[in-house]
Amino acid sequence: MAVAVLELAHVRPSPVPGDLLSAKIDFRLLPGELALIDVRDRRRAAWFADLCSGLVSLTEGRVLFLDRDWGELPDHHAAALRGRIGRIFALGGWIGFLDIATNIMLPQLHHTSEAPDILREAAMELAHRFGLPGLPLGHVDDLSALDLARCACVRAFLGEPALLLLESPVQGIFAELRTPLLNAVAEARGRGGAVLWLTLSDLVWDDRSFPATHRWRFNDHGLAPARRPA
Q: What CATH code is assigned to 33-55+75-225?
């Protein structure tokens, strides 16, 4: 049996956000799989991505990434392992006093030992793929919402992550991003990466052509498999 990229085994987190009941969460994502999860609240989507990243305390169960239990890892080891995760944040996740290029490269600069020049070159290539002329200059407030969304994609895919946590990207707002984003997802899956796409949008959830391996709903009752749209 293949080792799961991400596994939540009988997880009962603490504290539980909002009105979410304290039901246990079980979830498994294998290499090359894409799970589409219907989440109708941005904060809950961000909380679930934090849970998958080992950033939420548990009262029961285990969260494993690449067969390693977040709860058993020393802080420095966990930080290095998070360098294998790419994330688009539902609520932005930008550091206002840093320029946008540094924002894009910061997770890899912090969690890995990759040379800055190599990271910048890879980031520029991704920027072109997502419709930017290069790495933008200036700060977050200098960019349009669309260009910030493009930058978020660049940051998430930089470093060829083993796991992608995509919190409500596109959402029917930035139609220009759909094709390059799905192409980047397909490439990541092709090299064995796994993808968790958390959506708020009926345009994504009801799309029968969306290439999801699994479909789940995350609501007040917890996380449960969902039927494919008719």
A: 3.40.50.300
